[in-house]
Amino acid sequence: MRMTVLASGSKGNSTVIASAHTRILVDAGLSCRELLKRMVQSNEDPAALDAILITHEHQDHVAGLATLARRLRIPVFLTEPTHRAWVRMMTPRTAPTYAQWLDWLAQEKAQKEKEALAAAQASEPGAPSASRPSGLGAQDQTASLSEVGSCPTESAAATSEEDPDALLELEDVPTTKPDPAFLPAVEYFYSGTRFSIGDIAITPFTIPHDAADPCGFVFESESIRMAIATDLGYMPPNVKSALRRIDVLLLESNHDLEMLKDGPYPWAVKQRVLSRVGHLSNHATAEFLARDYDGGAAFIVLGHLSEANNAPELALISAEQAIGGRMSLLGNRILLAQQSAPLAPICL
Ligand SMILES: [Zn+2]
Ligand SMILES: [Zn+2]
After folding, report:
1. What is the CATH number of the domain that holds 341?
2. 143: CA distance to ligand 2 center in Å?
3. Cα–Cα distance for residue pair 343/185, rounded to 1 Å
4. pTM
5. Which protein residues have a CB closer than 5 Å to ligand 1 (ion)?
6. Is residue 43 part of a domain?
């Protein structure tokens, strides 16, 4: 099995998990272009990907999702609540704001006044010049109506009177923008229920984070087990037990508590990060590694490090101290995943 962390951090997350026969992209939190670039850099063939798997709908995990899935024409695996939340996020708000509505009312009133004036001028005998302003008014009206999109079929109907075939052509051409939340295929999984993509068995587990239905994953193939657990406010018992007998563990070590407290984030954001549905601090990660971790992994990859509120050396020292004497040439090697470049593939 192979794990290639393409990016990790609050500006984008994406990891390839591969077996001999199956390749899965976990999260697509960079632009499609950047994801393709990093896959090529890491010798991961984008065309060979079988599926995209999503942990949760935050932007740093889905930024390139729609474009990449459409481009590669591969299915996206996520939970139904995550899918719904993502669709809501991707679908632009269509209801007007109060200010827009007032604006629209004012425009409508002005238009009516203009029409009334034109009609009055036209009805006056001996005023041939009135036909020109009236014609202009009609054009203005068409333009303003098409701008607000209230009469999208008007031009089609007008064309159909002239040429019936033109309407058929127009019907084929989408009159509205393509659905931004369109995905070639969507497959739902359920947290706690094991499923498979190709020859990789996947066990999703619930993580405490402020998203619709956030999940971590254990991947298993050829008796090797790899896990991803980032974006969690604390380590609940279900996560601790999911992370047993793991060979390669991508684990969050998001922030240094002191740096976060003194750092640039606004108070509300600090509260969010520190909360039970925020992110794991170096301290919390070290506590897990010292007390609950079974010590069996070949590699522990520290990920989702905050650029503003953490320093790679601090995260590393904290985890190394927690692992203590269990570090060896074959076990518990600690690596740091990066935001700006892919990590060398880890193969077991
Ligand atoms: Zn998140
Ligand atoms: Zn995240």
Report:
1. 3.60.15.10
2. 44
3. 29
4. 0.78
5. 58, 231
6. yes
